[in-house]
Design goal:
InterPro entries: Bact_response_regulator (IPR050595), CheY-like_superfamily (IPR011006), Sig_transdc_resp-reg_receiver (IPR001789). 48% of the residues lie in helices and 12% in strands. The chain contains nine helices and seven strands, in the order E-H-E-H-E-E-E-H-E-H-E-H-H-H-H-H. A five-stranded parallel β-sheet has the order 2-1-3-6-7, sandwiched between helices. The chain has a two-stranded antiparallel sheet with strand order 4-5. The longest helix has 18 residues, at 178-195.
């Protein structure tokens, strides 16, 4: 079903709510990042649908076609690049496909996969989020007349950050395989940037550098595990 079908009545976008009438599929495993995007969609007038992995996104896309797909690159069951390629080659095509990552250099891979644009984490600017979508829509799908540029900064609920930390701690406890370490480090890198947790980010980046060199920094992984658990304990009262 197309989310823009007669079963989903369209409402024209306005200057205050420039994404009104649109449905945005967010494929993101971080609750913290997803909560930020949910708030941005709410402020912009868009409906949001959420998938936390590739399998869930593909199930959704078998039934609905959103206006916009925002796809994180690091997902628990694979790379978002694969889904971007699928959507870019599909007919009919999703109107706007955006890749998303905490790695600033990932924009090249996103562009090569066929996406329309790239969102760098952390995503905090409401105006930047709206413009990233609007610039790729045809003129008739954009608000008419002058548009109010709302540069509000979005701050997600810190409870969502704690939930992400618990998810990472569980993954580290259950599996110490290289693929799991790689997934957890990229996952924590994204949320550390979003939460401006610089000390956690420094450890994540050290592990990432070692992994790119083909090494497994056992001591740094243990340090990361301890830092994550300390943060969970500190936020337990939230």
């Amino acid at each position: 079903m197309d989310d823009r079908s007669p079963f989903h009545p369209m409402t024209a976008p306005t200057a205050q709510r420039p994404l009104l009438g649109m449905t945005i599929l967010v494929v993101e495993d971080s609750r913290f990042a997803c909560e930020a995007l949910r708030l941005m969609c709410l402020r912009s007038g868009a409906r949001i649908r959420h998938a936390d992995c590739l399998a869930s996104a593909r199930r959704h896309l078998q039934i609905y076609r959103p206006t916009v797909a925002i796809i994180d690159l690091g997902l628990p069951d694979g790379s978002g690049i694969d889904l971007i390629k699928e959507l870019a080659q599909a007919a009919p095509r999703v109107d706007v496909i955006l890749g998303m990552s905490g790695d600033d250099f990932a924009d090249t891979a996103v562009d090569a996969a066929g996406a329309d644009g790239f969102l760098a984490k952390p995503i905090a600017s409401l105006a930047g989020f709206q413009q990233a979508i609007l610039r790729h829509l045809p003129p008739e799908r954009r608000p008419t007349g002058p548009r109010i540029v709302n540069d509000e900064r979005i701050s997600p609920d810190p409870v969502a950050y704690r939930d992400d930390l618990v998810h990472a701690a569980d993954a580290l406890q259950e599996d110490s395989e290289e693929n799991t370490i790689d997934y957890v480090t990229q996952f924590l890198g994204g949320i550390a940037r979003s939460a401006q947790d610089t000390s956690l980010l420094h450890v994540v980046e050290a592990i990432s550098r070692a992994r790119r060199a083909g090494e497994m920094p056992i001591s740094e992984v243990a340090r990361l595990n301890g830092m994550v658990r300390d943060r969970i304990a500190q936020t337990a009262a939230i």
